[in-house]
Amino acid sequence: MSITTINEGQGTLEQSDLQLDENGLLRHLLTLQGMDPVQLEAILDRGEEFLTKPGAPAARSNALAGMTVANLFIENSTRTRVSFELAAKRLGADVVNLNLNTSSAVKGESIVDMIYTLQAMQVDMFVVRDHQPGTQAMIAQHVDAYVSVLNAGEANVSHPTQGLLDLLTIRRHKGRFEELTVAIVGDIAHSRVAMSTSAGLAALGVGELRLISPPELVPNNVTNAKIMTDIDEGITNADVVMALRIQKERFADKAGIPDGDEYFRAYGIDEQRMKLAAKDAIVMHPGPMNRGIEIDSSVADGPQSVIREQVSNGVAVRMAILELLAQNRRTA
Amino acid sequence: MSITTINEGQGTLEQSDLQLDENGLLRHLLTLQGMDPVQLEAILDRGEEFLTKPGAPAARSNALAGMTVANLFIENSTRTRVSFELAAKRLGADVVNLNLNTSSAVKGESIVDMIYTLQAMQVDMFVVRDHQPGTQAMIAQHVDAYVSVLNAGEANVSHPTQGLLDLLTIRRHKGRFEELTVAIVGDIAHSRVAMSTSAGLAALGVGELRLISPPELVPNNVTNAKIMTDIDEGITNADVVMALRIQKERFADKAGIPDGDEYFRAYGIDEQRMKLAAKDAIVMHPGPMNRGIEIDSSVADGPQSVIREQVSNGVAVRMAILELLAQNRRTA
Amino acid sequence: MSITTINEGQGTLEQSDLQLDENGLLRHLLTLQGMDPVQLEAILDRGEEFLTKPGAPAARSNALAGMTVANLFIENSTRTRVSFELAAKRLGADVVNLNLNTSSAVKGESIVDMIYTLQAMQVDMFVVRDHQPGTQAMIAQHVDAYVSVLNAGEANVSHPTQGLLDLLTIRRHKGRFEELTVAIVGDIAHSRVAMSTSAGLAALGVGELRLISPPELVPNNVTNAKIMTDIDEGITNADVVMALRIQKERFADKAGIPDGDEYFRAYGIDEQRMKLAAKDAIVMHPGPMNRGIEIDSSVADGPQSVIREQVSNGVAVRMAILELLAQNRRTA
Questions:
Q1: Nearest-CB residue to A82 (from C100, C104, C121)
Q2: Closest alpha carbon within chain B to C53
């Protein structure tokens, strides 16, 4: 599946419109594609205010007091679920978790019926993760005007809060995006993280974006990015190096894709390769990491790593976006 | 299993006594059978006060502040669990969820031991759902005087909060029950919803109650209701038409029961059939719906449908009953 | 596995050091082994203050307001999870539950990565249960200085909050430990409860501790306790009789261990045997009970049983230890 296919087929540009209300205010968070850079920066600014020093009490507010957030995880993810759960609770919301994994999978129409049911229970916001594309947009098209949908991971298509936390992490370390070279390394063709982070970086006018992968995992028809298969070339002088999690099932799926050890030799981020990057480059990873496959532990735990900051920033940008949607709802 | 068998075998009349304390106050909610109509109407009145307009903040109070509610779901049900969870949280209670599904099934005696354990942790109220009959009454007989048990679905026997929400929904649309004709359609013989809603309607003096099902699913020894197998006759001039969820396993289980398509033709509620009902008839369904089997989407989503209101009313009556039991406990 | 092996191999003495900060204040709760008796008594004193009369509202405070507790149960346990969850919520904490059971088992390194992730989300305390030894200590060695780890059950090694609740239960009924004879009966060799309760009793200077088991389940190299295999001799004149849960899989595992019925005849606590104990002896069990195997129902539910009090005391000591760790953190 190419980026073109995704864009055209799944309509992320349409999602960009769908997530705005009639006054142009953000009502849902479905995609970073096409998002106004001023809006994006405002979310990052607000997210930054929710950061506290390690060991200090977590930021809290009453922005969502009296509201109910439902975590609807059709695809399981402990870390993303907990991040959203804590973000919502720290804003004063009631949170209910619904883990609808494969064993009790619900089908097409009945997801909408479940949404109608939860909406009738006065759930105000749905945090939705699904391995099927389009579920979040479909839900957004069905909910009432005062209900918001947040995309917590959509198939290979997008993961906008991951994009937001990556942007905040980069901005805190590197400042302005215009002069930055960002290298994203891994299974670009199947990565929703690459999609959302790329879209956000493009919106904020990143200097140069390099998408580096084995030839078999190159995306199609990407604009605004350099497609590369040579990692050493790709990492050279990069200010930001982001390793993606490689799905181990890819090794079995496709002939020609190197397996674990071989992948590490060919595309793994280790100390040797990091010497090619800018001296003060930072290293990122969306987690969970396959240590020794896409990233070496010496780098993951080394001085250039900002991987744990990404997680902290994740709660912060989720608080920012939940608060924003709550405010826009009240305005509406 | 016939209604007679259930009444006599499982002792819903005894449950009616069991749920009162020595002063005649409601201590548990086990059944609507034999409930005082004045009590019933008071619960509906209070439930109505917990309704807010769509888009308005959900009703909240501190009626259960400092109390702990345990959702003990031996039979899984996401929607009923979430409805009770939100009702309890919006009243200020702490809620713990225990999903004891088949894989970790507990047996006879150890359910009581688990209840003793949770009671010793100062759980104040148990919300219990089980596919075995009698579990709720058994628990009610074992708990201490200051602990309440709420039936959240008992085998084929009863589902009293579903009955309450059905009554509230009908009352809000139709006012007085005396002049109403209510038609319940589906697998009457195995439906705890039919049992509880029928019991509530009888208590409130409904004009005429019709229980309509295929011949194989007719209940035994029902009093106070017309047993019918002809749906067209049954639906004619009805003020309320309630379709029940048909368990698909029935089709396989019993010879003679029509399968999906055939069931829809024979007993499904569609626009054509609804023309037989009173002009201003409402359509109800306890959910989750098998669209195209017991109900057509055009009816489920049409102007006569009050199905989503039922869900909203569900949270409201659960708040009312939780509050009432908390108050009666303090009085005791 | 012998106690010696455990002590030397898993380093509970090292854990005793590991759980203190540089000022000697308790930072984690990993083990009761080597704990200062004054500290132990202080925890029991504080726990006692969190007890309320049956039917009275549960004790509550704001000691953990603004803090986040993660229940990380790699080994499932509904009762211990709920006990910790209620203790934390009643102190005002936000609680997230992560049930990492066998089906989604995480391995070695990635447990640490998950901890880093949750810590980056500003989780303040980890409540950890695992069937592997050493997990809690391993986590404690990796977390930041302001994060605490509580052992909620570690392999065969220890279960310190169970030890604390046993101590509180005994103290409330029997007062000073010096003159007491305590008999623990069952699978001593594999019982983390026996380990922790023994360590606590030793620290508080119990008069005589008897560990009674079938010959096949005798622990190795125990000091400060009498190892016995004759239950009648072991129970004679005991002030406290504690039956342990026997894992039914033992019966199959090892030749020579009596099965259910036979075990009951040989080591079960019944009314007849209790006549050998002191007249005012109390009977304890950590739960969940195998009634009719290690304990007879007439004893479990009889006048000498304090089994349900143990459960209440469990929430109370967990509140005490959570509060203490929160206080020590703030001091640090």
A1: C121
A2: B122
